[in-house]
Amino acid sequence: MPAQVENMFSVRKMPWHRQGTVLEDYPQTFAEARKLAGLDWDPVALPVVESVVTRSQLHERLQDIVRESAVMPVMATVDRLESLWDDCTQSDSEWRRIARDDTGATLSYQRDSYTVIPNSAFGEIIDSVLAAEPGGTVKLETGGCLAGGRKVWMLARLDEPHQVTAHGRTDSSVSFPYLGITSSHDGKASCAARLTEIRIICSNTFSLAEAEGQRTGAVYSFSHRSGWRDRIGEAREALQFARNENREYITAMSDLLGITITPEQEKLWLRAFIPEPPDGLVSDRVARNIEEARAAVRGFLDGPAVEGAGIRGTAYGLVQAAGEYLDHVRAARSWESRMNRSLLKAEPLKAKAAELARVAASA
Question: Whole-model pTM?
Answer without folding.
Answer: 0.66
